[in-house]
Amino acid sequence: MYKRLVMNGVVIDTMVSDGEVVETSTGCAVDRIGFRERHWVKWLSMGMDILSLQISLYLGYLFRHLFNPWWPLSIGRHHYVTLMLAMLLVPYGYWLVRLYPGYGLSAVERLRRRLRATAVFLMLFISWDYIVNHSAWSRGILLSTFVFALLIPPMMQTFFRALLIRLKVWGTPVVVLGAARTGQHAVQSLLKDQSLGLHPVLVFDDDPNKSGKRLMGLPVIHGLLRANEYAGRIRYALLAIPGGGRDLQLDLWRKLRFRHIIIIPNLIGLQSLWVEARDLGGLLGLEIQKNLLVRRNWKIKQIMDFSLGIPLFLLSVPVLTFFGVWIMLVSPGNPFFCQVREGRGGKRFKVWKLRTMYPNADRLLHEYLAENPSAREEWNAFFKLKNDPRILKGIGWILRKTSLDELPQLWNVLRGEMSLVGPRPFPHYHLEQFNANFRKLRRSVMPGMTGLWQVEARSDGDLVQQEKLDTYYIRNWSIWLDLSLLGKTILIVLSGKGAY
User: Which domain holds residue 58?
Assistant: First the structure.
């Protein structure tokens, strides 16, 4: 927002953000920046974990007592109190892996660090109980507690982070050096993914033609080294000038006084997760792990699919029966619907769904598109319609809004034709809109019931966005990414966002 100020009789247009002056129309930065880090966030985040871990312990205690009729257990108050005190150590482990506040970590990396730290403490507690405590604690309570600890704290942290983002208090300010293409990509990415917590506030560039202009709402200040004026108040600097050459980047790295300097190379389009820095005799190397080529990762993915798929399928049977009867009452006929789709390696298979459309759906669609040119444009862009005449009244919209029409695909998962997470198996007419290279990339993985596209865009994503998100998933695939997407899918389905 701009305000017009009068300084020494001179009228100056000034940008004001969060009540703080950032830059004047003269192109000169002043002392105050538009976003500041709230240091109490990390302590509140730790408090949330302490609370959620104690809830996990109580739920683990209750869960173990469900089996008392078959495996009696008596645990004294003293033992429960010692377990409560022991659980206070777990947040210390989270602190050691830098989860408080965790700025700059992706959701997948946060999940990976949290699950690993939790597993380490579970093993430590079991070892302590066996060696020192002489099995005074209940291992059943410990195991069930840590199962809940893998679910409840991450979910509470997700809601907590979303609240802080909404209140505009999550994050730390970042200065960006470079206003060219790479800098623009960096600013755009950070503004889009606010959960990273890296909040760009100022952009610096040596090009005098860019001085005083704005980059996605941020003021551009002339002079790269002028960023040092803010080094005492801002901890992060983003070096986004790969075109400047090695000498310029080394010179800036030596002269910049920021505590954290992130260098962005000109590698846009390559894998970004699971990249590790290597010291090669004084040379910096980046090791990219192509997880899709590691056989054990696919085995782990299959184990996860069956471990979760079997109980989910059994739980879905009464739900499928209920909705199947409802569908037949609205529209007589088979309540299930199948289509042939393309799977891993180009293999064809039948994808099963609950029927949400009338039997003459193709004719209804053809007539509707012929009469509504705007609907045809929408169909050509998304291959979906917000007001689809083919959808069954009532039950059809409920199933599609909640994505419960996809439940029969759990059978495809158990048959090994699909995975719980992966690119969606699109119809043939949809696939034909993509180029050959992207289709080949999609065939390298198992299609999934949910995926990055469903979480990030769902039905609101056009062909370009579908290709971008599916490509990101395939190139950055890992078990941790799958677990993160499964958790996000639950939240997206409950909200009904982007589904129609």
Answer: 40-165
